[in-house]
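ingest -> fold -> write
write: protein_1
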Amino acid sequence: HTSDSAGLQCKDRSMVPTLGPGTSLLLVDRIAGRFQWYREGDVVEVLNPMKPTTTVVKRVVGMPGDRIMVDRDTIITIRPGHVWVEGDNVIESTDSRSFGPVSASLVRGKVVLQLHPFHRMGRIPNNMPWHTPPPS
């Protein structure tokens, strides 16, 4: 993913079926997050913890205090000031399962609209039908 003055361009398949496949032009709200916290289900632009000169687009699936099942044997609790992000296409996504919880300071903004391709233009849904919380 790369960002420019026109918005954000998503080129990989990590957010399929929500975004893509292929190139999607997105509008990112970089102001609202400064005044309110992101919510579970929001699609956000994040500075890539593994390559800080780039950004990634992922969905927030864990908030501070949430317990996340990383694999069959590992459950972690999200620390204050952090979020857990994942791509909707978990098979093709490098996300918090690889780099861990992300500091909220790395979240650049909330993706609010898909502008291109035109047949997919519209608001980004805030849902996670594939997400299953860990047992209590």
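write: protein_2
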Amino acid sequence: MSLSEGVDLLRQGLVTGIAGLMAGGEEDTETTQATFITFNQDTTCVAVGTTSGYSLYTLNSTDALEPVYQSDEPDVYIAERLFSSSLVAVVSNSDPRTLRVCHFKKGTEICRYSYGDRVRAVRMNRSRLVVCLEESLYIHNIRDMKVIHTIRDTPPNPSGLISLSCDNTHCYLAYPGHSHTGELQIFDTINLASRVIIPAHEGQLAALHFSPHGTRIATASEKGTVIRVFSTHDGSKLYELRRGLKRTASIYSLSFSPCGSFLACSSNTETIHVFKLDEKLKETAVLAGSPPSDDGWFGYINTMVSASAGYLPSQVTDTLLQGRAFASVHHNQTGTKTLCALAMIQKSLRLLICNEEGFLLMYSLDTEEGGDCSLIKQFKLVESPTVLLQNEIVETSDAPTNQGNYFFKNEETFPGGLFLLNNADVAITYSDKLRNRTTNEMTESEKFHEMAAAAETPPTTCFLLDDDGEFPPVAFKAS
């Protein structure tokens, strides 16, 4: 073998080895990515799925994520939890036309329904459960899971773009009403009638989200430059918020804060925007979504624009009068699909950002001054629950490994419900022994009771003794 042949052989070996290492790294990256990440109705829990299963975590602390439940069922692409109850709606790629409602604390399947097409999305509140197919919508009564209404021949909706209000009084369903324009349909799921039709955008809709009380809905189109907020009462436009002037973007998510005064938006750009929806600003005809200012250049420009509205072109006036971001986050994950949410954690408003790689970033949000948000912590959801803070990795708790591991803390419990702590083995209760039952299988009446109990609204005036964030009442001895 000549020297040149030896050099060529060595070069080929190096190229093959480097390619193999790169391919192996890509495979490792793919296995650790999240297949889906969703928040529950009141942003107190996050669900994350991988090809090997899914997990639920509670969002009640800035120090660590509390694991609730982990399942080893593979290929799950929908896992929607009903508030903080034990009910979760599950759909897997192995049977994409079947919805299963499970009680994960007891490890029992409550019911299952099959449909004529692939399930695209599932949304639920304490009154209704809505299943979205590509061209139809099924509305279930959540107490007995009976189909009470079907909306057929809807415009093609392959992405499953729908939104369901979590309020029982304004229990509305929103979905696209046209295949080419941004027409929005609002449907009353209690009275089973169309509420209002809103011509929200010229282009197709890309994101929808109801306010906590269901009185407003935020929308964005595929162009992604303008976000609009409409009234669900009469369809009137309340706010028009501008994400950018020239740069179009794909809007991935919209999220109202629990108080309804802030709206967060994530896209394929490197910026997460937070808008402030101030009623005083709307009433006084100043810029919606901007900090109040009576003096200075901002107030002067706003006054001049309002006074000259009749002389300027309508497009110029509309652009100048659109609200700007109140706060923002700049990250380096351009092009990665991100999901944002606003949550009350330890009595402070936090901005949560999740991405396809399975990271959850938690930011502080100054509700008075706005500006740039500060990173509090970063969590890795698809591996062991570890927390990353300023390039330091701090171990929190070991990840569950077996199927059906339960971690219960600060969760709603049902009357007569089984309460397991870090135990994958199903316990047999005294009532089961009396009925000669050796498993945790529930009867039909017990299943109905669990569904009805989960649909009950928790009282708001009592002490939440299972909440570690609150001190229990102290009794003083009378002197």
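write: annotation protein_2
The helical segments are 3-32, 279-283, 296-307, 314-320, 430-434, 444-455.
The radius of gyration is 25 Å.
pipeline exit 0
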